[in-house]
Design goal:
Blueprint: H1 9-14, H2 17-26, E1 31-37, H3 49-55, E2 60-64, H4 84-92, E3 96-100, H5 124-133, E4 137-140, H6 150-164, E5 170-173, H7 191-200, E6 204-208, H8 218-230, E7 234-239, H9 248-261, E8 265-268, H10 279-300
Parallel strand pairs: 1-2, 1-8, 2-3, 3-4, 4-5, 5-6, 6-7, 7-8
Helix pairs in contact: 3-10, 5-6, 6-7, 7-8, 8-9, 9-10
Length: about 300
């Protein structure tokens, strides 16, 4: 198995989720994940946000605000909606993942919540549709004001594993409270919560990057990452608090702190510009965690390779 650093479009086409996990592991903490929204006008409308993020150095693309029962992406037109994801994968030459949200309708709220369409919820029906559309991995997490809880994420992991099988790749965790009482700041997650995700079947555990959520220091985050690694899972550290729109100096600090905390994957969110991080911040983040050589090769490598 090639390390992801050396993979090209042709390699990604052959990979299932298990292969992708091994390729990430072999890269030793040098995998960039960019989250994008396709439901808004792209940063530059001539291309999708997914293409833009890939061009600036992302290895994996994570699509947010995507309704699996109404597939669409601004900047990309297809005659048959159900071919959209596979068409996008051909355009970017990268694995494409999907956010689905395990909303806890019984959780205590700390703010007014928004109502999501079924195609964005982590239901059995939506998960099955996501698999049919061709997504390479699923991320079970919560956007702001959605009411996603850690307990419901644990339940959704089991559903996802059942549908995607042993070869599926599952990411799970929270970047912020998502509007649920008792799951904010330093109380967002515990070692026990992370272990419950892994025992339920998650491959990669999502944890906020140091400095993105109050109380998440390098030391605290590193302990959580160590707990994930001890159980044999990988850790993705996330910047999902709109700091993806911060200045480059802040991005570089978050990146280096996340590296020191032990991240296997580095995520940069979708709220820096119009449905994606500021493109230059993706590149700046990437250069910190893997240098110009690997960053520029990823940016320059043709999708036809």
């Amino acid at each position: 198995m090639k390390r992801l650093l050396d993979c090209t479009g042709a390699d990604f086409e052959k990979m299932n989720g298990r292969d992708l996990r091994q390729s990430i592991l072999a890269s030793e903490g040098r995998t960039m994940v960019a989250e994008v929204i396709g439901a808004v006008t792209p940063y530059y409308p001539a291309v999708t946000n997914a293409e833009m993020a890939a061009a600036f150095g992302a290895d994996l693309i994570l699509v947010n605000f995507f309704d699996v029962f109404n597939p669409s992406m601004e900047g990309l037109e297809v005659e048959v909606p159900d071919t959209l994801v596979r068409t996008l994968k051909k355009l970017v030459g990268r694995p494409i993942g999907l956010n689905l949200e395990p909303v806890d309708f019984d959780a205590e709220q700390v703010e007014s919540l928004i109502e999501l369409p079924e195609g964005r919820l982590a239901t059995e029906k939506s998960l099955q549709k996501a698999k049919e559309l061709g997504f390479d991995f699923v991320c079970l997490t919560g956007n702001p004001k959605t009411g996603v809880s850690n307990a419901e994420i644990t339940k959704a992991i089991g559903r996802t594993r059942k549908i995607f099988g042993p070869e599926g790749l599952i990411i799970a965790g929270k970047m912020h409270s998502a509007g649920v009482a008792g799951e904010a700041g330093g109380s967002l997650m515990s070692t026990e919560t992370l272990h419950s995700f892994i025992e339920a079947g998650a491959d990669i555990i999502l944890i906020p990057s140091p400095g993105t959520v109050p109380g998440f220091t390098v030391e605290k985050t590193a302990k959580l990452v160590d707990a994930v690694h001890e159980k044999g899972a990988l850790a993705i550290l996330t910047t999902g608090t709109s700091q993806e729109g911060a200045d480059e100096a802040t991005i570089k600090q978050i990146a280096l702190n996340s590296k020191m905390a032990g991240a296997d994957l580095f995520h940069i969110g979708d709220a820096g510009a119009a449905g994606m991080a500021i493109p230059e911040n993706i590149t700046a983040y990437s250069i910190v965690v893997r240098g110009k050589r690997h960053t520029y090769v990823r940016m320059a490598s043709s999708i036809l390779r």
